[in-house]
Amino acid sequence: MAIVTILEAFLGKLICKEIEAWLPQASRELLNLAISKLPAHERSRYAEEWSADLANIPGDLSRAMFALGLLKAAWGIHEIEKQQHELIRAMYRTRGKVLTLVLCDENLPTSRQERIGQLLTITVPNLQMESLIVKLLASSGMKVYSMRK
Amino acid sequence: MSKDIRITGPMLKVIGQILVAPDSGISGAEIFKSTDVASGTLYPILFRLEKAGWVSSEWEEGDPSELGRPRKRIYRLTATGARECRLAFNGLIPNGRLAWLS
Is the pTM above the cut of 0.80? Predict the structure, then answer.
């Protein structure tokens, strides 16, 4: 019985040491995996930001848990980007000098709407656009932006 | 514009922490350590806030080779963010003011 107890204690200690030795590498691997799951244009920024933040977390186990969470974060960021790209697929029509842009979703941030307007002035250079009217499908009102070229 | 962002409990905690250091700013790790918001939730929130223009971020000063480590990304609430927070929270707070915004 005493031998079993000693053996258990020895093995327990050995396993703990093994886990302790592997945790830093596991954190790095998880970090790299998370970065690879990000949209390509966001990878270099988050590689540096998350490396710095990971190094700032005390304790190997906490660091590993933080790195594991980054996988979910990468998926979340990817999903947000995907949603925004879908929203950009907007319909538009011209009437004289006014461009009416009909957006697909009311959740599109105003800054994004303005960027769409700016993009259209570049991609449709012949359009003498004076204002951009944004109509959100799920809202009753319209937003008007002056876009003089 | 407040409806551009759906304010959730974790988001309130994140904004609250950013407001603690309005001038110096705060990194993701510091927000993580001072709230119970998991990293998997924290960074998508920061990403969403930044895309909506509520929060801005920039690298800490210094070169990584001089610092001997990767640079931290520092988050700050923008003037738009502060205004939108007030608008968004006005309906939640009886007198229209938040202690940490006043």
Answer: no
